[in-house]
Amino acid sequence: MSSLSRELVFLILQFLEEEKFKESVHKLEQESGFYFNMKYFEEKVHAGEWDEVEKYLSGFTKVDDNRYSMKIFFEIRKQKYLEALDRQDKAKAVEILVNDLKVFSTFNEDLYKEITQLLTLSNFRENEQLSKYGDTKTARSIMLIELKKLIEANPLFREKLVFPTLKSSRLRTLINQSLNWQHQLCKNPRPNPDIKTLFNDHTCSPPNGALASTPVNLPTAAVAKPAVYTSLGAHGPFPPTAAAANANALAGWMVNAAASSSVQAAVVTASSLPVPPNQVSILKRPMTPPATLGMLDYQNADHEQLMKRLRPAQSVEEVTYPTVRQQASWSLDDLPRTVAFTLHQGSGVTSMDFHPSHQTLLLVGCNSGEITLWEAGIREKLCSKPFKIWDMQTCTLTFQASAAKEVPFSVSRVTWSPDGTFCGAAFSKHLVHLYAYAGPNDLRHHLEIDAHSGGVNDIAFAHPNKQLCVVTCGDDKLIKVWDMTGRKLFNFEGHESPVYSICPHQKENIQFIFSTAVDGKIKAWLYDNMGSRVDYDAPGLWCTTMLYSADGSRLFSCGNSKDGDAHLVEWNESEGAIKRTYTGFRKKCTGVLQFDTTQNHFLAVGEDYQIKFWDMDNVNVLKTIDCDGGIPSLPRLRFNKEGNLLAVTTADKGIKILANANGMRSLRAVEAPPFEALRSPLEAAAIKASGSSVPNVAPKVERSSPVRPSPILNGVDSMARSMEKPRALDDVNDKTKPWQLTEIMDPAHCRMVTMPDSADAANKVARLLYTNSGVGILALGSNGTQKLWKWVRNEQNPSGKATASVVPQHWQPNSGLVMTNDISGVNLEEAVPCIALSKNDSYVMSAAGGKVSLFNMMTFKVMTTFMPPPPASTFLAFHPQDNNIIAIGMEDSTIHIYNVRVDEVKSKLKGHQKRITGLAFSTTLNILVSSGGDAQLCIWSIDTWEKRKTVPIQLPAGKAPTGDTRVQFHSDQVRLLVAHETQLAIYDASKMERIRQWVPQDALSAPISCASYSCNSQLVFASFFDGNVGVFDADTLRLRCRVAPTAYLSQSAINGSQAVSPVVVAAHPQEANQFAVGLTDGSVKVIEPTESDGKWGVSPPADNGLLNGRTGSSSTANNHAAEQVQR
């Protein structure tokens, strides 16, 4: 419908309202879908006219349109169901359950079952979550508050909640104006024309010639007319203007280009009905306004929060509400315009990218095929990777024939993954190389892909289904998506020319890829193999690159025509049209333009031997600089993520680093003296002697070769060439003074809280978990009993998250139930308790030598039991992609892959010699890693459950392969933490090669009882049997802080007949410096740094091995020699 037709509908709505055609007004509102009358909606909800409520909503949304819509319908139907139960109308309640609520069982069957169970209660208020349900009127009012917030946040209601401002009787006025115009055209206009119909054009023919025209007025009806149609724009703190900025604006392109877009049924974020990642798409209605794009929704739901929604007084915390973007003040000084120095690359630079978190770390690709990693702060190459085909035999025959020719390989593009743990390079022939970045000087081969026939023109990382993937495009006109093992997930066909660039992006739960081809075509793709959703022409019809602003709210493209005309534009995502065209280019340019965005405010383009800057909101050039000369006509450029540094290529195969004031400070911080200490004496001497800032990097390249990794023992590299990257500016500043191990000896030097009712000397803590939401702690005792503590949201603790500053509640349901495992016939001294928590905190699964029990976390009821011994279960893990699949490690050394839904063991894995002590899944590598009492690690394919490899952990000489071995994946899903009483070790799980090791020594010489990564995988917390807790740098396994038992235990606990020590340690899921320990006396303590410190010590420098006056153990030359290490 055209814009004028839409406005006509509003005029008719105003007319109907003024004429009091009430039913017609709301019918037209619903059928047109242009205006949602919140006042009318409120009236119907208060009246409980549920059929009319849903009928009216149906004109604007359907239950499965998006997560907001789903939650709106769920709230309404839930209220209708509860009211039927309150009236004791069980027949009506059953009807609602079957006809209205059944649809939600597709997304959460357990919730549906729980709702169904309310039928068995004489009063549903007996349910813990509904105990505070009041009368019907109050419940409807409370629900309506939430519905209004959901509607205002729902992108489908964008621009539909405010009626346009119109003068009263606007339609009558327009008709009068039309009649006046018709009367003006009359050949013989009468002074007082009599208008009797609007069905025909007006004419009048007086007998005595023409007279002066008189304005015509349509007769006015006798009905009183309100001055202004009711405006319902703002209800509470979520105005429609905020909702209008919602992330789904791109839908206009998609809907216009392909009316039948494929849409994933969306769900309520973080609170409700979890949709499986492979949920079948449904067909979107073509009339859907430009606010819902058919992109896959990969949000995980939080079932605990959903069940809380059964409480009538709950706020809508589960849904993310859009906020108005604030414009920050800026000045020209924010632009990095000052040349700080020049890096001499030695080859022509084709692509650059700064690390996402280490702002001075620059990845460079060259026309020689070389990849280089620079630390710009010290102007030094950390490592360099000359082009080499890693494994010719795995490449296609076409590529092998092409590679035999002497045409050199050039780098098309280099890029970092969003978390900086991987980087990728696309080459001018077929190949993509992926590297794992494990620290300075450590760029290790990860994967080589023969990706495209011809050149690979672009590469980017994306996260479909929250799985890190690589997107590539090439001369073969294809876009491909690969997982991190090299498996091809998607193959997008549709371009008719080589694909030049790609731009993966995510807006809210919608994930898509823009692509541009050398014929100037722009297309957009969903991760669904359903073809392109967009087909538009880029300005210039040639090579174009697309980029979003840092906050993802604005889309830009830059390119030029074959004739050399440059085009820099901003796009209107809602309409697929150009919103703004920037000016200031020279008339013609040869080659392809490069551009970048920064600080959500500036654009920069390299053109005409200059760098030109624009304010995003102004089409005219803001500033032009020549970088003190020496740059090519079309320089390549790249901002760092903070926008305080800009790398620009030079004509003599170098890179100029430009900075603003903040950038200069960050460069000086990295240049500080502590970094000189990081170089070996020989390197430092060579640099000073030659006066050059480019040391010989050949030894570093050799050392970081993945063919023969050098394991690092106790964080000290025997070759003494590694440079520790600064974690943060405060770490850098701390390094200006000699490093010293932080030792927490006194309770005043940290924050600590003991869980109430936790101490029980006869029931030591065997397993300890934080809830995934971070609001509680769950402990499993050696007697099979579980305890749950929760933090309450209040003024002291506004976040409601676990904290050492507030004492939590020992939480139990009103029923008084206790989560106790079946221990009949079990010898508790020999039993191995085990526990696992579902991702949404809905269920906990545990065992203590007997059957495995599945508990409801809200009611503590046992939902089911399974796997009775023998053999007994010793370790439990939920499958990361399906809560119904559980990996169960057994006492007899086998692993059972069990499907709870069908109560069946799908596979039985055999590979260990003793009981299973650890299980860890990696979705990136598609593997399950198991550890056992035999000190062996086994790797299993998740797809086939076949064993891929067995690796023994390297024990000290003479040490028998006994004791528990635990495993946990780093957040990158590649590095693996292995903890044994004799050591901590980091493995590269893609090859199962050990890359770091630490053995107990000095103040931490006791055996290790447990270890865990922090939530961001930057730290490792390790507990020891003598009561100490060590905090290690996760990359290097260097000890940065020791928490002594005197800091958190009383003297009686330390000196008693049975000394108390930590058995288990757990890391908070969101607070990187918070951990909890479970002790042998049954107590649980949460420990954090003081608020003034905010962290556990400082990262130790990678010096000559002297740590706080003590000599660290040196690493051995290879993995086998490490077996000789003595504890």
From TrEMBL:
SMART domains: CTLH (SM00668), LisH (SM00667), WD40 (SM00320). One of its GO terms (biological process) is regulation of DNA-templated transcription. Pfam families: LisH_TPL, TPR1-like_2nd, WD40, zf_topless. The keyword Plastid does not apply. SUPFAM superfamilies: WD40 repeat-like. WD repeats lie at residues 449-484, 909-950. Residues 1110-1127 have a biased composition (Polar residues). Residues 34-92 form the CTLH domain. InterPro entries: CTLH_C (IPR006595), LisH (IPR006594), Topless_fam (IPR027728), Topless_Znf (IPR048419), TPL_SMU1_LisH-like (IPR054532), TPR1-like_2nd (IPR054080), WD40/YVTN_repeat-like_dom_sf (IPR015943), WD40_repeat_CS (IPR019775). Residues 1090-1127 are annotated as: Disordered. Keywords: Repeat, Repressor, WD repeat. This is CTLH domain-containing protein.
